Every structure is written in structure tokens, then in C-alpha cells.
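Incident log, structure service

09:12 report received: a user says their structure output differs between two submissions of the same chain.
09:20 pulled the input from the user's history:
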Amino acid sequence: MYRICVAVSLCCLLLAIPAVPQSKPPAQQLAQQDDPGTRIRVSVNEVIVPVTVTDDKGRFVSNLEAKDFRILDEGQPQRIKFFSHDQRQPIVVGFLVDLSNNTKIHWKTFQDAILELVWNLLPGDPRYSGYLISYANEAELVVNTTTDSEKLADKVRKMKAGGGAALFDAIYAACTNRNLIKGEPYEPRRIIIVIGDGHDNASKKSIEEVLELAQRNLVTIYAISTMAFGFSNEDQSVLERLATETGGHVEYPLNVGLYKDVSGYLSNPSDDGNYALTVGTGGYAAEISRGIIKAIAGISGEITTQYVLRYNPDLDPEVRPKVFRKIKVEVPQLPTVVIRARKGYFPNGVPGALPSGQ
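09:34 re-ran on a clean worker, output below:
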């Protein structure tokens, strides 16, 4: 098994004021991991917005100041009261691993990639913790929240692909059924990384339910798509929506451009069932490795270059409150940059702890 080396510094991700589903009263919410009697309450008057800025070539812009940003809340400019560009923010990250039949063709490759993500994002520092959820016909919390990367790595090594895909149930489990770290959701911040293709054919929950739950619980979703070149993926939009609306993004390590210079790929059709394409020789494996390295670097690079903005919404008390408020972040002096930030937030004031699963 090869090791993909990517230097990772961790910082804050895009967050907004959370709220748990209204059907879950505060008394039913999950207590803190270290003290069952403690619950974190988040000010309803403050909105937190981590932001990623890239230029037109996809390069991160990391030299901006507070005065360079403008935030619009339902179209109204807001005054930024807090600004940070700290690259060592604590995080708690959930690794959601697709074990469906669709991952079989490149399972060993992505198994190695998951191990690299775990080792890079959980370096043994108590500020960084994570948990592991697998999903096939059902979603399963395989390893609860821990700072020990080897606990996750050991389980990943033993995983085997095969079955259906309960992606939405896996996201629901990540938001409802794990131990918390004291300080969530501010420090550490909450991240989910989906390693899958976005397909779901086994969940009891819907995308609408889990997307709202993630937004209410200050979760930012990233994804590494496992869909191989040459196969259609009608569910690509699912991954894109989950990531875009929570402030993350999707990496495609096996995209079409990866194989353009590899001889033999797609040139020898066969009749070997579902995987009816033969590949080239060593160049093919090397290109896959390069794609995985790029995908891991893309996600970790975004984490390390984010800005964190906070503001107190200036709202008209005469206007009827909205259930979901849209926000927009701009850098007026750099109109060509690409800005990734959460699309909005739920202003309801509720405890910051994730609700307990039922």
C-alpha cells in the first residue's frame, strides 16, 4: 500500500448559526462527550461565515483583510465584527465511506486515499478529532469520535465494498449519533468528508432533511467523488448540492482529463460484465495516484486558506422573520475571484450540541 504525502494545516470552515430540527426538544439533545450535563448554547445574534477565495485559475487568495470583504444578509450589507485567518483551528471531521457496489472498481485505490485523509487530518494533536461512518445498505457508525487516527485506520483496512448506498442516512448519523467534543461547534468546527459517488438507493432520510440538518448543525460537507472515468454519474448533482449549500466543494480525482495521455485506456473493449473496460499499464496507476494526491490537496488546501468572518445581523424588527436567511459574501475590489461560502443560515437560537439519534 502506498502512502500519499500531503502537508496539511487545519483551519476554520464555513459556519452559520445552527438549529436542530424543531421536532427535537433541547432536553433530548446529546450531551457533551466529557460532561453529560453540559450543553453549549450559541448566541442567536451572531453569524459565523468561513470563506474560501480563489482566483480565476483556481489558486487560493490568502492575503485579504477584513476591509476587503462585504457580507449581504438578505441583500442588506452587514458590519463585520470579527475577522480571522488562523491556519490552526481545531476541527472534528467525519469520514463517510461509500461501500456500495459502485466503488468496487477502484476500491483499493480509495481505501488508500481514505487512510491518507485520516492520517493527515488527525495528526495526533488533541485539537483534531474524527469519526468514521460506512454506508452500504445501511449507515453504520464504525468508530466514534476520537483523536486516535489508528482506530479509524484499522477499520478502514478491513472494509470491503458491496451492497446498496444509504448516503443520506450516513449524513443523518453524522449529525445525530456520535459523541461530541467540548467546544463544538465553534472550536472544534464540524466537517464531513464523503468518499463516494453521491448515489443513494437505500436511505430512509431524504436529501432535503439531511441538508437542513447539516446547515442547522454548522456542518460543512466536502466530497471526493469515486465515480470512474467512462461511467455515467446521474448523482453528481447530489454531491455538488450537499457541498455547495454548506460551503464545501467536490473533488473529482478520476475525471476525464486524468487519462488523456495514458495509452491503452478505453482502447480495448471487452465483455467482462459491469467493468467492461480494460486499462493501460503502469501509466494508468500513476495517473490515478496523481489524481488522488490532487484531490486530497484540494480539500486540505481549502481548509488551510479560509477566512472566518462574524457579524451581528442588522435586521428590521418590523419584517416577519424568515426560517432561512440567505447570505452572500463579496470582495468588491476583486470582482473576478471565486468565493465559496455557505448559502445561508437558520436564525433560530438553539443549543449547539447535535441532537441525539432515534
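09:41 both user submissions now match this output. Likely a transient worker issue. Closing.
09:42 reviewer note: Residues 73 and 327 are 5 Å apart (CA to CA). The radius of gyration is 20 Å.
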